[in-house]
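2024-03-11 09:14:02 DEBUG pipeline.ingest accepted 1 chain
2024-03-11 09:14:02 DEBUG pipeline.ingest length=292
2024-03-11 09:14:03 DEBUG pipeline.predict start
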Amino acid sequence: MQKEITPLTWQTDLKSEIDLDIQSIDDDFLIFDNVKVLPAFDYPFRVDVTNFIICTKGTLRGRIGLKSYETAAPCMITLLPSEILQYEYISDDFEGLFIVMSKRMTENLLPNIQERLPITLSVRQKPSMPLSEERLNLLKTYYFMLKTVVGLTENPHRKDIVKHLMIAFYYHSSSWLHKIPQEQQPNKHEEFVDRFLELAEKHYKTERQVGFYAEKMNLTPKYLSQIIKANTGKSANDWIDEYVMLEAKALLKSSKLTIQQISDELNFTDQSFFGKYFKRIEGISPKEYREK
């Protein structure tokens, strides 16, 4: 099934929301420095591009998947393709520099998966990275070099130049990620929670029973439920429901799929059952949520 998820079609959506000074190369690379576009997305949406946000002033709070993040400048936020995002708060004084790349260009920068995977894993674990004044100034230098090159529309090699500048940008920022002090090692129960959430994120579309996850972890359903509740304040079933609802909301708001197609995508027996499930948790029907 073709999902047609189009949450951030840059040339159309961004320009229709606000008069941005956007510079771009084809449908692969976009650069701008106006943050007022962010509040336009006040619902969960899935990104189909890579976003680098160099925050120079103010604070930003939101969710990536089910995890909440709050950042304060100076920092850099990296958002990868297929993430589900929701902005919750942006301070009035927030300022930032934005670099947006298509998934195709992102993969072409580092075509070797063995080279790209460690960077991807580091970014997923730490999407927000604090910056010293020195590192902030270096990233700003890259940004303005990129913006200058993108503006050289008569140069037939500008895309290649941008590619090599972005490779350097990647290597600089990824090396800093690995130097962030590691958090305290989790205890056994915290490891169980991390494993459960990892499995839930992978299987929530097809498996909504705690027993499935308990079997995968060689635990009894009762013991797994006790661990999840004690360490997170939410039941295992609540976490599974959150993953399902996050995906459902993103598809309702940022795709052209019909409600029947979304029901099928999430493996509900029929649209009616999906509607009752959605309304039980959200308080309104999928149609009402899409239209509000």
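2024-03-11 09:14:41 DEBUG pipeline.report The chain has two domains: 10-177, 189-291.
2024-03-11 09:14:41 DEBUG pipeline.predict end
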